[in-house]
Design a protein that fits this description.
Length: 138
């Protein structure tokens, strides 16, 4: 299978551009928000952005938040490529905190093993209110 490369920007450069956009936004963004954000710097087709996001996710540099249908830059250099990430999403201010909870991930992996279930992706998302918003509401 051959793929004709007609884009003027090499994949690596695209990935870097999109990763930078994710880091700059500092919150979960959709592919279309990324395109908007980079409008001054590049004209990107949605499929170009999705392909770059797929590569960034595969390498552990970014994550997809299923419940928001949005993407974030990985903020834990330690778990790059390790797969599962845990997120706490604030429904009020939209802040997303990424953290590692190896015990939760191990528990789920061990269930999958027992159930002979093959895990393709694991994203744990907590929905609720962050500490700052909780304090503000009190
Ligand atoms: Zn991560
Ligand atoms: Zn909040």
């Amino acid at each position: 299978m051959t793929r004709k490369v007609t884009k003027r920007r090499p994949a690596q450069e695209q990935d870097k551009l999109i990763f930078t956009a994710l880091q700059e936004s500092g919150r979960p963004v959709s592919a279309y928000e990324i395109i908007d954000q980079l409008r001054d710097r590049a004209t990107l087709a949605p499929q170009t952005v999705y392909r770059a996001l797929d590569r960034l996710i595969a390498s552990g540099s970014a994550h997809r938040l299923e419940s928001l249908n949005a993407f974030v830059a990985c903020c834990q250099s330690t778990h790059k490529g390790a797969g599962a990430a845990v997120f706490a999403i604030c429904d009020d201010c939209g802040t997303v905190s990424e953290f590692a909870e190896p015990r939760a991930v191990e528990a789920l992996a061990s269930w999958a093993k027992k159930a002979k279930y093959t895990v393709r992706a694991m994203t744990l998302e907590l929905r609720g209110r962050c500490s700052a918003c909780t304090a503000r509401m009190a």
